[in-house]
Amino acid sequence: MNALDKFIAYWEKKAVKYYEDLLKEYVSFTSPLIISDKREAFQKSHTKQEWNLMQSAFYAVRFEKNENFFKEIMAKEGAMKKAKLIARVEKKAGKIVDASHLDIGVDGGINGVVKGELKSVYVETIYAGGYNIQQLHYRVLVK
Fold it and tell me: Domain residues for 131?
C-alpha cells in the first residue's frame, strides 16, 4: 500500500469514528422526552451537513439495519479525495512518474515530493477549520 492509500485509509478510519460517535450523541436527542433546548444546542454546534448526515444515518442504522453506513459513505468520499488529489498534482506536474517520496507524518498528514512528467511538486498537509463553521480537517496543499 503506497502513502496515498495509507493516508486515505487513515482519514476514512478517523471520519467513521467521528461520525459514529456523533450518531451516539444524536440518538440521545431523538426521544420526544428530551428537552428541545438541548436538541437545538446540539444542532447549532454542528454543521448542516453533519446534521443531515445524522438524520440519514439514524434512519439507515435503526430501520434498514445498515451497520456499515458510515464506512460506505467514507469509502466513496475517500476515493473522491484520492482522485481529486491526483488530479491536482497532475495539473501542476503533469502525469505522475514517481510518488515514492510521499510519507505519512506523525500527525497523519501526507507530505513529500511527487515527480511528474513536467516537474516535481511538494505535497504538504495542514489542519484547517475547526471553529464554529466546520470540523477540524486536513487540507492538502500542492506547491
Answer: 3-142
